């Protein structure tokens, strides 16, 4: 699943792929945002950890769960 996080006052968004299900990601985002003053911790497919301060989050976009196709469509 592709995740895009917009950061306040940043020209680019944080974008990465993860294998976590949408329900789990939604729960993590909601918990981080409602606790106030915390951080959102997410892990991508390669095992990298992303820690984003919740005060700086402008938006979180969760993409579709299907993987990208590689190659030509005939």
Question: Would you mind describing this structure in some detail?
Answer:
Helices cover 19% and strands 35% of the residues. Strands 2-1-5 form a three-stranded antiparallel β-sheet, covered by helices on one side. With 74 residues, the protein is an alpha+beta fold. It is globular, with a radius of gyration of 14 Å. The model has no long low-confidence stretch (mean pLDDT 86). It has one helix and five strands, in the order ββαβββ. It has one domain. The two termini are 25 Å apart.
Write the layout of secondary structure elements.
Elements: E1 2-7, E2 14-17, H1 22-35, E3 39-43, E4 49-53, E5 57-62
Antiparallel strand pairs: 1-2, 1-5, 3-4
Computed Rg: 14 Å
In helices, the fraction of residues equals 10-25%
Q: Outline the low-pLDDT stretches.
A: none
Instruction: Give the number of helices.
Output: 1
- How many E strands? 5
Amino-to-carboxy terminus distance? 25 Å
SSE pattern = EEHEEE
Strand percentage lies at 35-45%
Strand order of the largest sheet: 2-1-5
Structural class: alpha+beta
Mean pLDDT: 86
Cα shape: globular
Largest sheet: 3 strands, antiparallel
Overall number of structural domains: 1
Tags for this model:
single chain; 74 residues; alpha+beta; two-stranded antiparallel ribbon; 5 strands; globular
């Amino acid at each position: 699943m592709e995740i895009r996080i917009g950061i306040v006052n940043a020209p680019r968004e944080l974008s990465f792929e993860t294998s976590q299900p949408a329900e789990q990601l939604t729960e993590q985002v909601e918990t981080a945002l409602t606790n106030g003053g915390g951080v959102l911790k997410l892990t991508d497919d390669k095992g990298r950890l992303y820690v984003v301060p919740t005060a700086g989050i402008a938006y979180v976009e969760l993409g579709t769960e299907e993987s990208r196709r590689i190659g030509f469509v005939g």
